[in-house]
């Protein structure tokens, strides 16, 4: 038998998934684009999974960065039970709270507090491309989003693979980015007109962290262009204009269409993404439609990122995002 010598991280992930699938031939994994997204079938998420099924789903997640399921009509309790098989769950949201009676779940409604501007048409959200909660020193490892009320058209979510984005950069730029760190914080974008309630919430729960621009994936060893556009406000050590222009370049690069996948929701759809190596964008078109849209999210407790240069992230303000059962609320 030949040892898998000199395999790249991607080849190791492919090998791991192949081995996992051998043990679970009833579970299907169908890629949805060249670099990101796979549709998983053959499992009933209302039931406890076998260890082999958990391994196949985790292996598919590590390779494809976001995995999708259809026709999984879970209750809140089943959503929490499914998620818990992949790690400890955080409180619903460190700033915006949780679903009453379900501390692990965050409600993603069409008009939610995280987006609150107040009156129409200012209720339009400002949420663009982002990685969840990167203002925390330990952003969630993964997020599990469940669709309940879904418009007949519109409201698709897109994800992008930040490993593929990193790998497509020039070697010269990679080397420069390896030396840099950025400041991530919760704050409304320039020009927003947030409500008093929103401002009070983020002032009471201010989260600011410094993360490396290039992080190492703690499970796969892959290098990641860790540049959550919604939260990353500046690059430390650069002049304001240098920082702004470089971030614009990186954000534009990171969401090139070939690194992305677009998912059309149905009631009972679930998207489970690796929050360490992806960014996603909340759909804006639902605000041009009268349909309602309601999803629920759980998130897995994450570790403090480590940069490609070996330095870890630093908390500037606020607390790490801990497990729901150890949280104050
Ligand atoms: Fe998000």
Automatic annotation (TrEMBL):
Cofactors? Fe(2+)
Is Transcription one of the keywords UniProt gives this record? Answer: no
Record keywords, A-Z: Dioxygenase, Iron, Metal-binding, Oxidoreductase
Top-rank taxon of the source lineage equals: Bacteria
Q: Does the keyword Endoplasmic reticulum apply?
A: no
Q: Which residue ranges does the record assign to the TauD/TfdA-like domain?
A: 31-281
GO MF term list? dioxygenase activity
Family as reported in the entry's similarity comment: Belongs to the TfdA dioxygenase family.
By what name is this protein known?
TauD/TfdA dioxygenase family protein
Origin species, per record, is: Comamonas jiangduensis
Taxon lineage: Bacteria, Pseudomonadati, Pseudomonadota, Betaproteobacteria, Burkholderiales
């Amino acid at each position: 038998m030949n040892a898998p010598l000199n395999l790249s991280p991607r080849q190791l992930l492919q090998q791991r998934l192949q081995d996992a699938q051998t043990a679970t031939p009833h579970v299907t994994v169908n890629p949805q684009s060249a670099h990101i997204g796979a549709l998983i079938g053959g499992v009933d998420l209302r039931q406890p999974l076998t260890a082999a099924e958990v391994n196949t789903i985790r292996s598919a997640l590590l390779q494809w960065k976001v995995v999708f399921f259809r026709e999984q009509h879970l209750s809140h309790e089943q959503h929490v039970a499914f998620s818990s098989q992949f790690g400890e769950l955080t409180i619903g949201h460190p700033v915006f709270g949780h679903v009453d009676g379900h501390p692990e779940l965050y409600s993603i409604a069409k008009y939610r507090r995280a987006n609150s501007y107040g009156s129409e048409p200012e209720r339009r959200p400002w949420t663009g491309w982002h990685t969840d909660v990167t203002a925390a020193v330990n952003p969630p490892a993964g997020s599990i989003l469940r669709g309940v009320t879904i418009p007949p058209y519109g409201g698709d979510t897109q994800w992008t693979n930040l490993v593929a984005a990193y790998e497509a950069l020039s070697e010269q730029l990679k080397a420069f980015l390896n030396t840099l760190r950025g400041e991530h914080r919760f704050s409304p974008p320039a020009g927003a007109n947030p409500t008093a309630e929103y401002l009070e919430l983020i002032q009471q729960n201010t989260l600011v962290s410094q993360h490396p621009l290039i992080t190492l994936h703690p499970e796969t060893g892959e290098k990641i262009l860790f540049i959550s556009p919604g939260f990353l406000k500046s690059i430390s050590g650069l002049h304001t204009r240098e920082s702004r222009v470089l971030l614009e370049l990186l954000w534009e690069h990171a969401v090139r269409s070939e690194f992305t996948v677009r998912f059309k929701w149905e009631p009972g759809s679930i998207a489970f993404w690796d929050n360490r190596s992806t960014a996603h964008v909340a759909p804006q078109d639902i605000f041009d439609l009268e349909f309602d849209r309601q999803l629920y999210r759980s998130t897995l407790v994450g570790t403090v990122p480590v940069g490609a240069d070996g330095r870890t992230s630093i908390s500037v303000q606020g607390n790490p995002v801990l497990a729901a059962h150890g949280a104050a609320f």
